[in-house]
From TrEMBL:
GO terms for molecular function: glycosaminoglycan binding; metal ion binding; N-acetylglucosamine-6-sulfatase activity. The conversion to 3-oxoalanine (also known as C-formylglycine, FGly), of a serine or cysteine residue in prokaryotes and of a cysteine residue in eukaryotes, is critical for catalytic activity. GO terms for cellular component: lysosome. Belongs to the sulfatase family. InterPro entries: Alkaline_phosphatase_core_sf, GlcNAc_6-SO4ase, Sulfatase_CS, Sulfatase_N. This is N-acetylglucosamine-6-sulfatase. GO terms for biological process: glycosaminoglycan metabolic process. Residues 1-25 form the signal peptide. Its main location: other. Its EC number is 3.1.6.14. It catalyses: Hydrolysis of the 6-sulfate groups of the N-acetyl-D-glucosamine 6-sulfate units of heparan sulfate and keratan sulfate. The modification 3-oxoalanine (Cys) is found at residue 79. Its cofactor is Ca(2+).
């Protein structure tokens, strides 16, 4: 009797355990093989100013076949810090990558020893995922003084990473630790096509017994905006969108914006329209990349067991508040990013409004891989429950942090020798897009209130506050108009978030 009870208890434990493992690793019949993942990360692609418009195939094959997130943000609007957040699932104040230079920890020895050794690929590899990386990694990756091309970040089985910042031709790659030089022949060298091709080879050669993770980071649509030959004449009549904050003065804003030329010169406008058109041309090759990968997955009968994520490291602007072109600002156009996901358990044709941050990507990948997230030290949260409520429960965060450490030159900006020190990216027309004192932290709230509160580390301790409900283009800084009690609450939330770590970053009721 006792024995039979024990056996039946053991059996129900086994059934329960089987169920748990199944749910955890998404190995259930409904989902097929354990969740494979393809992650496509573009460079500088905005959402707010039409960045997804040229990508018809990607929208059909990913967004329409799954979810669009209409409130997807980066925790910081600069390449290297944002990519470091994506890899680690941490806010910049925790991975401590401050800017795009080695001295600011971009691919630095401290980064390699610390945060990079705890980034998501390390955990995926422990879960026996076969991993592939192709494309731009971190701006300073591959420099001789920090390990050169022989440094392969842990967790990657196949490593095809760009040395340095975005380029389309005439670059070097680290191919599994060996340097590979490329010239400027479209058929052999065009980086976006090259990484697409290599990912297809990886899919052919992989073992069918274990799941895979593919990360593709094309250079597009970052400068120098080199289109594939067949797309050089596309979008002839396209111009950057007017309206909203385009060519508006930033007179009630922080120091840098008060110093932008307003109205912009015709030269600046010509420059930004050209940038806008050329960026779209480069995105057509990314659109082809998406199509190639999806077709290959279909051919291999893997499409129904594979999650495909598409996003960008941060947004971009074209004349907003009279800043010609760049990122680095706290406004919606720079912090909002496209995010589309398809995959097992995700119903097609959904648009989700819950806020999602770039630090949530890593925990979401690990959640799909069946990892218990309390074992990892990440500030983000899995958003799998948002996309696939049949698989997971969860709740949305009511507000989050955006932080940026401004970049400057110790002397004058090389393109504008007449300007004093402390500024950077002063092009065109000597309008500067960043400065040491463009250092800020914001709380962005998207629950009952649609509000942004930002504090600057400058000589004025400048504060900007926007009511996004009444003022979606952030034309009016309402710091002097809102209830001081509300400012105090926002200030308290900001202080808490700026020192948060792990769970304390999302236990924010
Ligand atoms: C996925 O598609 C393949 C081929 O069409 C099929 O054999 C398999 O059962 C499908 N899996 C799921 C989970 O639908
Ligand atoms: C999504 O919705 C559109 C328009 O309502 C429809 O044409 C399309 O077939 C839907 N796609 C899917 C995958 O359900
Ligand atoms: C770089 O990161 C290390 C820890 O990984 C930290 O000690 C150091 O202060 C960081 N440097 C900067 C400039 O933040
Ligand atoms: C990618 O593969 C296609 C099809 O095989 C080929 O035509 C093209 O030249 C390749 N491009 C690169 C850059 O390898
Ligand atoms: C700038 O362009 C506008 C509109 O095209 C034109 O009216 C104006 O004369 C131009 N200004 C200069 C200085 O060329
Ligand atoms: C995850 O790990 C924590 C801490 O070890 C444990 O309390 C929790 O039950 C685990 N969750 C699952 C779903 O196994
Ligand atoms: C979500 O929570 C509800 C209520 O606790 C529970 O009945 C349901 O099974 C949970 N769903 C998942 C996918 O965990
Ligand atoms: C990057 O950050 C480091 C450390 O704070 C700083 O010394 C350096 O000047 C910064 N680089 C730029 C270009 O601002
Ligand atoms: C910001 O930095 C610039 C350049 O160093 C300086 O001229 C300006 O006074 C500073 N403004 C504030 C508000 O700190
Ligand atoms: C923001 O604007 C909306 C719409 O005008 C208004 O109802 C709300 O009270 C405002 N919020 C704050 C905090 O002022």
């Amino acid at each position: 009797m006792a024995n039979r009870e024990k056996i039946s208890r053991d059996m129900s434990m086994a059934v329960l355990f089987g169920l748990l493992t199944c749910v955890l690793a998404l190995r259930c019949a409904e989902c097929g093989n354990p969740g494979n993942i393809v992650f496509i990360l573009t460079d500088d692609q905005d959402l707010d100013l039409g960045g997804l418009t040229p990508m018809k195939k990607a929208r059909t094959l990913i967004g329409d076949a799954g979810v669009y997130f209409s409130n997807s943000f980066t925790a910081t609007a600069l390449c290297c810090p944002s990519r470091s957040s994506i890899l680690t699932g941490r806010y910049p104040h925790n991975h401590q990558v401050r800017n795009n230079s080695l001295t600011g920890n971009c691919s630095s020895p401290a980064w390699q020893k610390g945060p990079e050794s705890q980034a998501f690929p390390v955990y995926l590899s422990k879960q026996l995922y076969q991993t592939f990386y192709g494309g731009k990694y971190l701006n300073q990756y591959g420099r001789k003084d920090v390990g050169g091309v022989s440094h392969i970040p842990p967790g990657w089985d196949q490593w095809h990473a760009l040395v340095g910042n975005s380029k389309y031709y005439k670059f070097s790659l680290s191919v599994n630790g060996k340097e590979e030089h490329h010239g400027d022949h479209y058929d052999k060298d065009y980086l976006t096509d090259l990484i697409a091709n290599r990912s297809l080879e990886f899919l052919d050669k992989r073992s069918p017994k274990q799941p895979f993770f593919i990360m593709l980071a094309p250079p597009a649509p970052h400068a120098p905006w080199t289109a594939a030959p067949q797309y050089e004449n596309a979008f002839k009549d396209i111009k950057a969108p007017r309206g909203g904050s385009f060519n508006k003065p930033g007179k009630d804003k922080h120091w840098l914006l008060r110093h932008a030329k307003n109205p912009m010169s015709n030269n600046s406008i010509k420059y930004l329209d050209n940038a806008y058109r050329k960026r779209w041309q480069t995105l057509l090759s990314v659109d082809d990349l998406v199509e190639k990968v999806v077709k290959k997955l279909e051919q291999l009968q893997l499409l129904n067991s594979t999650y495909i994520f598409f996003t960008s490291d941060h947004g971009f602007h074209f004349g907003q508040f009279s800043l010609p072109t760049n990122k680095r600002q706290l406004y919606e156009f720079d912090i909002r990013v496209p995010l589309m996901v398809r995959g097992p358990g995700i119903k097609p044709n959904q648009t989700l409004k819950a806020p999602v941050l770039n630090i949530d990507l890593a925990p979401t990948f690990l959640d799909i891989a069946g990892l218990n997230l309390s074992m990892v030290n990440m500030d983000g949260q899995s958003f799998l429950y948002q996309m696939a409520p049949s698989l997971r429960n969860g709740s949305a965060r009511p507000y989050f942090l955006v932080e940026h450490t401004g970049e400057g030159h110790p002397g004058s900006d090389p393109t504008c020798p007449k300007l004093g020190p402390g500024l950077s990216d002063c092009f065109p027309d000597c309008v500067c897009e960043d400065a040491f004192n463009n250092t800020y932290a914001c709380v962005r709230m998207l629950s009952d209130k649609n509000l942004q509160y930002c504090e600057f580390a400058d000589s004025e301790s400048f504060v900007e506050v926007y009511n996004l409900t009444s003022d979606p283009h952030q034309l009016v800084n309402v710091v002097k108009k809102v209830d001081p009690a509300l400012l105090q609450i926002m200030n308290q939330k900001l202080i808490k978030l700026q020192s948060c770590e792990g769970k304390t970053c999302w236990d924010t009721k």
